[in-house]
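Q: I have two molecules that I believe assemble together. Could you output structure tokens for the complex as a whole instead of separate predictions?
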Amino acid sequence: MYLLPLIGLLLGIALGVALKIPIPLPYIRYLGIAVLAALDSAFGGLRASMEGKFKDKLFITGFFSNILLASFIVYLGDAIGVTELYLAAVVAFGVRMFRNLALIRRYFFQRRHWE
Amino acid sequence: METILSREQILRRQGLVVAICFIVGFLLATQIRGQASVSRRLQAQSEQDLSQLFRQLNVETKALRQEVTNLRIRFLEYKMAAADKKVILKEASKNLEDLGMMAGLVSTQGSGVTVTIFDENKQLGAYDILDVIEELRAAGAETISVSGHRVTANTYLETKQGSVYINGCKIKPPYVIKAIGEEVTLEQALNLPGGIENTLSNLEGVTLRIEREKVILPAASRITMQYVTPVEED
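A: Yes, here they are, computed for all two components at once.
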């Protein structure tokens, strides 16, 4: 159940390391936020699947729209001179990731009846 | 707890999750790599490297400053040399001018005196003219001419058959002697008591007229040196 996603993750990391795609300096922050959004979506999907509420389309659209929206917030912040606006995305994703992780942990325990 | 899913649904879901995980991994790795390279570039490895760079730049700055100073010095040197050259050139041309005037190569003008000697009985000879010339020279005359002939180092006067010749040219009275110099001194030298004016005026038919005025002297005809060459001196 968890093996295949893990393999996928490792493959992705391997490809990223192997390709060595150079990122222009100004876009580093965009990609960073995008990564956060992607991680958040992934954890959200994991939680949803543990709750049995996983929906393919919702997950996919959420994944990409999160990434785009996060990048857009960074861009917006740069455009209007509030470069710290990306913090909003960071905080939002960070809080949600922690909550999702906590829930995942709880479901995990529940499922194993450790509690 | 979980709703019953068909096999196909499960497969699709798993494939989806794998794909998403793949994308997440890819993004993560790329970003980490990019961030690391930026850190390496910007935060410039270590303080040691930075201080090394700093020192190197300092040395370069110093060298460039030194070069600027050197170039400035050279510029000044050249400027001074140019000025020197100018001075030398000016001096040389002044010398040339002086020598030209002295040698009679150019006509000259200036304040001086005109001495007109009337000699009705034609009793004056070359020596009398010469006396006047000598007297004027002694009084500091810078350039002299006799009846239109410039007196130079090569000038000679002679008397032949009762006539005065200058440089081989016959001149007739009244003899007009012009000299450039300090007018008063020149005049006084001529009309001293017992001087040349007195002496000549005592002769019958000889009268002198001395006028202080601005005079213009002609250039002498140029002579070419045929036998002499300068001696090279170290």
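A: One point stands out. The beta strands of chain B are 108-119, 143-146, 149-151, 157-160, 163-166, 169-171, 175-180, 206-217.
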